Amino acid sequence: MKALATVLLGRRGGLTSMKIIDVLLDTPCNMSQIAKIVNVNYSTAHYHVNILVENNILKKDSDRYGALYSPTSYLKDNREIYNIIKQELLKRNDIIKEAGKNE
How far, in Å, CA of 7 to CA of 97, rounded? Predict the structure, then answer.
């Protein structure tokens, strides 16, 4: 799960990647659906999904337009660890928000 921790905790975009993972843990989606559900533009969704695919966290069902993305068995098998990483990411995000309020 080092790749997952690095992708989520080691980048500024970890929160967006986490939201994408959460969506896809519920149901496979294509890129347009991901962008709409996560409320980001298509190119942002594409950027994050590509990183997640490159790190064996998500998989793509084909190379066709409208391909569906879903979690890999690697992510499914390590769901508990993902949830721990997710909680750490959310905690860090809360700390950053709180620090911004105090400035």
Answer: 21
Single pTM value for the model: 0.90
d(Cα 45, Cα 38) in Å, to the nearest integer?
8
pLDDT in tens, 58-81: 999 999 999 999 999 999 999 999
How many CB atoms within 10 Å of residue 2?
Answer: 8
Alpha carbon 32 to chain centroid distance? 15
Domains along the sequence of the chain with CATH: 2-101 (1.10.10.10)
Cβ atoms of 28 and 70 within 8 Å: the answer is yes
Tell me which DSSP letter residue 26 carries: H
Kindly state the tokens that stand for 49: 């999904």
